[in-house]
UniProtKB/TrEMBL annotation:
It holds the Pfam family MotA_ExbB. The gene is tolQ. The lineage of its organism: Bacteria, Pseudomonadati, Pseudomonadota, Gammaproteobacteria, Aeromonadales. InterPro entries: ExbB/TolQ_transport, MotA_ExbB_proton_chnl, Tol-Pal_TolQ. It is found in: Cell inner membrane; Cell membrane. This is Tol-Pal system protein TolQ. It is a multi-pass membrane protein. Keywords: Cell cycle, Cell division, Cell inner membrane, Cell membrane, Membrane, Transmembrane, Transmembrane helix. GO terms for biological process: bacteriocin transport; cell division; protein import. Belongs to the ExbB/TolQ family.
Amino acid sequence: MHAEISFIGLFLEASLLVQLVMLTLMGFSVLSWALIINRRKVLTTARDDAETFEEKFWSGSDLSRLYHESNARRDSLAGMEQIFYAGFKEFVRLQKQGRAQDSILEGTYRTMRVALSREVDRLETNLSLLATIGSISPYIGLFGTVWGIMNAFIALAEVQQATLAMVAPGIAEALIATAMGLFAAIPAVIAYNRFSYQVERQENHLANFMDEFSTILNRQVMTGNN
């Protein structure tokens, strides 16, 4: 009796459609956890790298020296350092062309804005997939539940005398589909909300740095003109 009401037993006795629903939800669960682990690593690294570079930036280092250090490893730059590198590179290029002050600052800011947008896109990679898993998994599980219960009542109608023992396995397999849908959805929704908040905070952090850096470049231009 125990074997019949175990998870494996119920899965093997379930209809093909309910089995497909369970396998799909198991796949969603595995995928969502893989995405959660990956995004957590990416966001933690981005935050730590930003803090490290910001500390170096505000330590009083010469901007040209900091730029050359970044340029030496330009292929691996990301986050705040990438925004700094892109902005300062454009700033130097426009200065060499003899552009007007407003043109230099506007072009530099626009370049940093593009770098910021790319960084946010990188941090948000696969977050929409997490949101999709979190939103559709309960409905897929509910579909399996409805199908399983429907089969249980159809089987019940074919017998003369119905007992709880006859209908219990069918209802149990149906409810497992719902449980698996929630099991896949809940971590995905929690992770999506948390990561979205972290991305928003990181974006604000980078935007504030971009504004502060623009102010520093503005002072340099005004000093140079004077």
